[in-house]
Amino acid sequence: MESLMNVNRKTLHVVMFPWLAHGHISPYLELAKRLAKRNFIIHLCSTPANLSSIKNKIGEKFARSIRLVELHLPKLPELPPCYHTTNGLPPHLMPTLKRAFEMAAPNFAYILSNIRPDLLIYDFLQPWAPLAAALLNIPAVEFITSSSSMTAYMFHFFKYPGIEFPFPTLFYRDYELVHRAKLLESATDKQVKERAFQGIQRSSKIVLVKGFREIEAKYSDYLSSLLGKKIVPVGALVQDPTQENDSSDIIEWLDEKDKNSTVFVSFGSEYFLTREDMLELAYGLELSNVNFIWVVRFPKGKKTILEDALPLGFLQRVSERGLVVEGWAPQAKILNHPSIGGFVSHCGCSSVMEGMKFGVPIIAMPMHLDQPLNARLMEDVGVGMEVVRDHCGDLQREEVAAVIRHVVVETGGESIRTNARKMSEKIRIKGDEEIDEVVQELVQLCATKKRNGFH
Ligand SMILES: C[C@@H]1O[C@H](OP(=O)(O)OP(=O)(O)OC[C@H]2O[C@@H](n3ccc(=O)[nH]c3=O)[C@H](O)[C@@H]2O)[C@H](O)[C@H](O)[C@H]1O
Q: Which family does it belong to (predicted)?
């Protein structure tokens, strides 16, 4: 079917427009690659700062079919161009970045009118983008890079505040209610809530959501009923680990370690650990006696010396057993390495998909927003275990060590390890089957638009 669809139709041009976050542009790029393989030309539009994080991930194979289009934000003194991405953005500048993004709407409309694509695929934070497309009679589809479960949770409370979420396995712990409030703050801000619904309403017939039905069917169906749109899952969209920059020192270090002996510790592209969490985690890693690679990040523009953020003498004590990497590490490549036996993760949406894809059990340490829900989902699916904090919300080093040992080493954790392996196998066998449905939907959408004489 796929080849027939490719041969019999003309190439479709699509502008893809993610929010300015690495956790968003990265799944957009992965979807772009899968569409490009099926006779689409993609124009991926973002700020130069955000595009720079994916430039070298496109590769020769897609050099002609995936084109990068720069969107320039207005000049604001407090937001130099290096901050035109959430990656490393000092948290207090997030509202300014959102404001500058919105101010760039006319620039985006200009880009769209120049390219005149057959379709726009846009993210949830910019309901003004499908409006610009509508003015040019270009169909537009929203692509949500979070899971169906978290999106269903959010829209449930937007629509029915005060009424319990129908799936009790997804919940926030008492000490996480502050994160829930932050996630749902839009529910109390009429304008923000309206924008979220506007974004969806302006999506032509379908909404694309990252993930797959095997773990999210019931949430997808519920989301569809909440939004009145067909939800089309696009799959796990995990990057090909061979495409990542060569970090041979890290890989050589891993090569020396035993199979499944090492945990990878990383908290995504946006979040920075508090000093207290950092110390408890460090002591927990020490106590666990398990090898580790830990990616430590500090906000851009803030000078922090690594040793000062770690317990005194930590690096000397862990010595060969632990590798601390400052800034960034090739996560997919590391998770795909046979020495990795566990993933201490904040449970960002892409990270949990990567854990499942590479069969690495997850030691969940959710930090904020939707991450507690993703952590609960991983436990429910059976591929992870959470480090539960104390009643004040503080991380405890003994608990960190105990969960790491349970998941990676102890016999009691065998079922989690087996489930993770089985999940990886399932994902491998399935391949990119969701993308065929996505292509079918998109092709139909463009064809209907043309038949109706809009184009
Ligand atoms: C507000 C939050 O945005 C989040 O994005 P974030 O970047 O933190 O996390 P991921 O979705 O795991 O995405 C992180 C991505 O960056 C990659 N990576 C990260 C660090 C590194 O050192 N090397 C890498 O290759 C990693 O492989 C993954 O693909 C999520 O949406 C989350 O659900 C939401 O709560």
A: Belongs to the UDP-glycosyltransferase family.
- Measured from the CA of 24, which atom of ligand 1 is nearest? 31
As a whole number of angstroms, the distance between CA 368 and CA 183 comes to: 8
Q: Kindly report the number of other CB atoms within 10 A of residue 306's CB atom.
A: 13
CA distance 132 to 94: 24
Per residue in 358-377, pLDDT (tens digit) is 999 999 999 998 999 999 99
Q: Is 260 left (phi over 0), alpha (psi -120 to 50) or beta?
A: left
Ligand 1 pocket, residue 369 CB under 6 Å: yes
- State the Cα angle at 18 between 374 and 45, rounded to 5°: 155
Q: How many CB atoms lie within 10 A of CB 387?
A: 22
Note the pLDDT tens digit of each residue in 313-335: 999 999 999 999 999 999 999 99
Q: How would you list the strands of the sheet with 340-345, edge to edge?
A: 322-326, 291-296, 262-266, 340-345, 362-364, 384-386
Ligand 1 centroid distance, CA of 271 (Å): 9
Tokens, residue 145: 């890079």
Strands (E), 340-424: 340-345, 362-364, 384-386
Output the pLDDT for position 195: 84
Looking at residue 6, its pLDDT comes to 54
ipTM of the complex: 0.97
Question: Could you tell me how many residues make up the chain?
Answer: 455
**For ligand 1, atom 24: residue with the closest CA:** 331
CB 346 within 8 A of CB 179: no
Counting from 1 in the atom list of ligand 1, the atom nearest the Cα of 331 is: 25
- Residues 71-99: b if buried by 16+ CB within 10 A, e if exposed: bebeeeeebeeebbbbbbbeeebeeebee
CB 334 within 8 A of CB 302: no
Q: Which residue type sits at 279?
A: L
Cα(116) to centroid(ligand 1), Å: 32
Q: What is the DSSP letter of 189?
A: -
Three-state helix/strand/coil letters over 219-278 = HHHHHHHHHCCEEEECECCCCCHHHCCCCHHHHHHHHCCCCCCEEEEECCCCCCCCHHHH
Q: What residues are paired with 65 via a beta bridge? A: none
pLDDT of residue 4: 43
Fill in the amino acid letter for 124.
Answer: F
